[in-house]
Design brief:
With 159 residues, the protein is mainly beta. Helices cover 3% and strands 47% of the residues.
């Protein structure tokens, strides 16, 4: 069993980027009516291009039994919620080609994430509706997905 931790840039740094609009904007645009929080994700693609897709994921609840981890060796993957609802993020370091000890983060509802290329992670896990996300990831030839079943599954509970 693992407990969720708050999603912070520092804690999530080994796995990817946290995208949010905290602090002062980097630039004020649109005649002073819009703050730009610039270049928040380190997108990385091997032999492909960035594409934007829309995902609609089934709502889940805590405790959550995680039975699958995956990674994308040829491209980073950025999840941008299209509503202000929290979602669960499960990650694991690489341990010689397989997932190491998992960690779980809970977004605050106003954060997006970008997984670094090759980061082991759980499936998209919204905890409230509607489960819509814009996803920026690699579009290109070849398989960009490795999946590993968690046998036995592990349970994630609220921190």
């Amino acid at each position: 069993m693992i407990r969720t931790e708050p999603l912070t840039a520092e804690a999530f740094a080994p796995f990817g980027d946290v995208l949010d609009a905290t602090g002062a904007p980097d630039k004020i645009i649109n005649a002073g009516k819009c703050g730009r929080y610039h270049d928040r994700a380190n997108l990385s693609f091997f032999e492909g291009r960035a594409g934007v897709s829309i995902f609609k994921a089934e709502i889940r609840t805590l405790p959550y039994d995680c039975d699958l981890l995956e990674r994308h060796p040829d491209g980073s993957q950025c999840f941008i919620p299209m509503s202000e609802h929290p979602f669960l993020i499960i990650v694991a370091p690489d341990a010689g080609g397989t997932p190491g000890a998992p960690r779980a983060f809970l977004s605050d509802g106003a954060q997006a994430i970008n997984f670094h290329r090759g980061t082991w992670h759980g499936v998209l896990t919204p905890l409230d509706g509607p489960g819509l996300f814009a996803v920026v990831d690699r579009i290109g030839a070849g398989a960009n997905l490795e999946e590993v079943p968690c046998d036995p599954p592990f349970t994630v509970v609220a921190g």
